[in-house]
Amino acid sequence: MSSSTTELLKGAAELFPDEVVTQAHVRHLDLPAGAGRFALITLDNGFDHTKPTTFGPGSLANLNAAIDQVEKEAAEGTIVGVGVTGKPFIFAVGADLKGVEILGRHEDALAIGKGGHEVFKRLATLAVPSFAYYNGAAMGGGVEVGLHCSYRTVSKALPAFSLPEVFLGLVPGWGGCALLPNLIGADKAVSVIIENSLNQNRQLKGKQVFELGIADALFEGADFLEQSLIWTASVLNGSLTVDRPEIDRGEAWDAAVARGRGIADSKVHGAAPAAYRALEIIEAAKDGDLQKGFDAEDKALADLIMGGELRSGIYAFNLVQKRAKRPAGAPDKNLARPVTKVGVVGAGLMASQLALLFLRRLEVPVVLTDIDQARVDKGVGYVHEEIDKLLLKGRVNQDKANRLKGLVSGVLDKAEGFSDADFIIEAVFEEIGVKQQVFAEVEAVAPAHAILATNTSSLSVSEMASKLKHPERVVGFHFFNPVAILPLLEIVRGEQTDDASLATAFGVAKKLKKTAVLVKDAPAFVVNRILTRFMGEIQNVIDEGTPVAVAEKAVEPLGLPMSPLVLLELVGPAIGLHVSETLNRAFPERFTVSPNLAAVVKAGKRGFYVYDSGKPELDPEVAALLKQGDSVLTEEQVRDRVLDAVAQEIGLMLDEGVVAEAQDIDLCLITGAGWPFHLGGITPYLDREGVSERVNGKRFLAPGVASVPA
Amino acid sequence: MPRTVRDVVFVDGVRTPFGKAGPKGIYHETRADDLIVKAIRELLRRNPALDPAKIDEVAIAATTQIGDQGLTLGRTAGILAGLPQSVPGYSIDRMCAGALTAVTTTAGSIAFGAYDAVIAGGVEHMGRHPMGEGVDPNPRFVSEKLVDESALFMGMTAENLHDRYPSITKQRADEYAVRSQEKAAKAYANGKIQQDLVPVSVRRTNEEAGETGWGLATADEPMRPGTTLENLSGLKTPFRTHGRVTAGNAAGLNDGATASIIASEDFARENNLPVKMRLVSYSFAGVEPEVMGYGPIPATEKALAQAGLSISDIGLFEINEAFAVQVLAFLEHYGIADDDARVNQYGGAIAYGHPLASSGVRLMTQLARQFEEQPDVRYGLTTMCVGFGMGATVIWENPNHKDAGGDK
Predict the structure, then answer these.
(1) What is the similarity comment for this entry (chain B) (predicted)?
(2) Chain A residues close to B203, C-beta within 8 Å
(3) Domain residues of chain B, as ranges?
């Protein structure tokens, strides 16, 4: 059929020679119950399920050719229907992101959007009905190819179904924004396209896909395709009618879009355009004019592909999906020693949380120690309570709960607890003398091979190890609160840490399912150093005279998960003050200790805000404590100062070799501080806004790494 | 404790379409366990009155119990089919009579009172598991001449059976095979077979085998409707030069699975399950391994004697057509004509195929359909020959017959 589509895709394919091309196999079969001859298209890239099927230009051309064939057969009356399904476990997971990254021109980006539409929409205009059988993982363009079909079935075994475009910085641009609200109504479409995407790319399961009305029928995985084809036969021979509920195209539609905007505002604060562009298209789709919607999708897609937010999003996605799995600078994993028992020094809240994490992930004996029996009992009791909660929620069964409880114990005598431990982590008071003392005691009783790990957030690992007989086995193992939720683990190599110890630490981190980043033994490591510099600059402008509200609002356009002072409240002003003092000692020229913060801590305040009205308002008692200067900055001036400080600090950290590359800084900020994908952590944003150039005279990342290629 | 033997009934049976073994066969890229799982699931779908939690056993036969036919298939297939974990399962092997033995063994347990309802069936993927895969015969078989060397090669045993019955010529065997194809084609045309088939999705990635991608198996692949005597006369006799056994008058190498629900009659009636056949008697017999095709004769003698019946009481026969000669030997022994209308009314394994351990339940499913159509027939039998010199026979009563359940 359309030769222009063929040309369009051919041109796009030339730009992307490395595409893993998906084949669209056409196979004919006789439907059950004598319902007639049927053409089934199987999307398959020729690899197993570990390499999911994607769509690039070559893949779209293959699907287009398959549709040429079935369109002809449908017109000739030799088939009664057309189906689309995937290889085992995978339907299709959407556009090949590598193909998006290489696009450098608006017209090429537009071609990709149009190409997808031109191919997919043919499934809606065949002379026979079309059916999508969502047999396995379906995302993005994979979901959309099915939305163009007349009918859909979904497998109960389908583990992941989503339109993740907004999460990455795109819009569902091959029909999703226009078709989905017209299929299931605007409110449910907003849930799928906006809400799920912005909730860490939440995935739907097969049953939910059916319940939302996206699929017309749900079948179990064991004979999903057979039952789908039997169902198809019933639909085609008229023995079964598919009823879909009427869509509310009235006020409910507008309310849904408004709800979507509310979600976007609360998540990205207007800082990333994708959600808003998707909502515009959903809003316009109310009149049911699909072609108009498709054109708007093409435009939005091309604009976003040529924008920095998407490139940052893809960069961040690749950091989390790829770099996080192969930590830069980690030693050969074969050097790692087995860890069959874990010791935890301290039985306070942090120590107990660590004990629970090690217990659940490693499933080896975990021993807590502390200075008196009451503390030990409390620590073990905490772990038991948490296991009971898991049991109540059905996350573990009774046998597993018994096993975990049996593995955790607490003793006063370190010799008794640690004599056969392979990995001992301390989480005692942040004071170098205390930590040195603890490690000396542990070394006296622990096996010679045992790793001594510290969860310090700001002390020197090398100094902590310096008085030991075997300092080579000390590593920093810095978690982020809440330990169970934030993925980041900064693994700190001390001056004398050897490769085997480091490899063991990385091995443990992997079993803990943490994102491990190798960090040099430098003050406050990565996340705390950048956050403290960032907070310090906010604090500075407040101290100098800028109103708190202006300082807070200045960084809103970044779309951070929370405002600086709310973050301070979460961390605890006392801890914030302590870290700033540590960094002030290390780098007095850049890190200040805010007298106002000191006053707040001294007054015993837990934060700057009160929430009596439901929203944060400056605590009058705090306001009374603040002593401000008379230099009042605008929001823009504040933002410049803060970003300049962050850019400077990151530049210096890279010069010092705190981490291998800027990518590691960004990975830390995304996984340890929750900084958003659309900032790419932070360095892509600093490059994009010209801050890096202004402060350091150069970019952090080469053009094309997290930006539109030059 | 006083104990009463309970009546056992055949509730329902289904099967997958049978495929040709080998790289071009429909199931070449389909696992054996998936085949049996699809059959079990279809059985449960067709019989919603059967609460899966009330199934007491899953007995699944396979000849080569390794790989996807290993791992105690009855148990693993039950889990894969979605049966409750409380339902146990096990595997059975009596080569070609595997599924038949799954039925009789569980039936014995039902009669004894150990079970109320079971799933019994079999599977053989001869493409993934060629005959003789992994076998390691004891050298004493040969050194002490315990069996003839031909005993391990089924085609040779068929030639040996021709020797035993010199009157059964290649011509008669071929004529029988042509009739089997004709009857099977007619049964298909009349929709007798398809009603008990479960469609199976089949994937193909090898372009040389045909269109690639997912397809659907809805019919038996081995069938050759329109086969003529001329077609068959020129075929090679691979087991003996100038022999009589050819690919045309024997079942091929096939892939497929069957499953049935067997229950105590009381349970079936209390749970509103259909009663398609009532078990009368069953028997197994051993013969010289090198003429294993003779096995159905002594097995049938024993089964008839147990039931107090004679061959003239049997109104319908379902005889597995591993080889035409083996059916003809049986008929010759009992003085039944080669084309007797009571025998294999829907055709047999020569047309449909014979995935070894699955075939027994196919015979039963077809006999059950014939019972429905012919309430005037009171007794029928299913019989088959078994490798290494055995025969297996099950005699069934037609519950639709006016005297059913009464004295003979």
Answers:
(1) Belongs to the thiolase-like superfamily. Thiolase family.
(2) 42, 87-88
(3) 8-130+251-396
